[in-house]
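The data layer described in this paper is built around a simple, fixed record for each protein. Such a record has a labelled line for the sequence and another for the backbone structure tokens. For reference, a complete record is included directly beneath this paragraph.
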Amino acid sequence: MTMQNPTMKAMVATAYGSPKVFQLQTVPMPRVKAGTLLIKVEVSSATRAETMMRTGKPYFGRLFTGLRKPKNAIPGTGFAGTVTAVGAGVNDFKPGDRVFGESATNFKTNAEYLSISQDAVVMHMPDALSFADAAPLSDGAITSINFLKEVGKIKAGQAVLINGASGSLGTSAVQLAKYYGAKVTAVCSTRNVGLVRSLGADEVIDYTKTDFSTHTAAYDLIFDTVGKTSYPQVKAALKPEGVYLSPVLSFPLLAWSLYTALFSAKKAVFAATGLRKPAELRTMFTHLLEIIAAGKHKTIIDRQFPLEKLAEAHTYIDAGHKKGNLIITHN
């Protein structure tokens, strides 16, 4: 008698487009290979970056995700779950371990099971951390650590502005900038002022009432988490050697990054956090866990959606009113 290969449920997108491209399908379960873990995913994330990957825009991003259609049909990057099996040569993880991390450009976390290399970005979860709190950390928190600490070289006493302070990156960036000792100005809409202030911002600007770019030479770092501004728009608000940071890729930002690197004391910088080496990202995760253990960072969750309603989660993100993080539950 022939044994059937085990299967699992997964969201699948075989083309770029609207959230309607997602379909819940039964697909083969990943095999356990040497050096890999098989993880039962309890919670994954849905992020603004993933909505851009879903659409394949900007188009030059397809160099990483696939030219005509997604190279990896199963979306999702952040995850938290339980190890169910390990391959030969895996010594640091065992079945039953609670783990979290990100799959980067391999995607595939919006599924019941995930196979990931032990050398990838996968970490043991502290007992005090829930699956829901851990799954989104690879997006907002790790990206913010990369931009503020690694790229922006944030220093205690600096004046730092966070634009888009109520989103996934923004809610983490406000908390992290305060942890690093900065004076934090947070920019958000009227309805999110209370939330952002509760995260420790020293000043909150309601963008519907005040244009922060009119504040001349006010900020050492401007971290535009949502890419709604540009370097020329905010240049005057930077101090003489200030830095404009944004994780939202565009041709103008790349051009300004190159230009300012050569010809300006004020800088514009883009960096692709997910393309950093796994060892570097694991170091950032270890640092983040220390911050969490110190009670200086908490995950802000707006809504949760079951796996089969991933399209609804992406539609909600596309509407532009998300606060903090969205999580996808797999039970």
Summary: The CA atoms of residues 13 and 29 lie 17 Å apart.
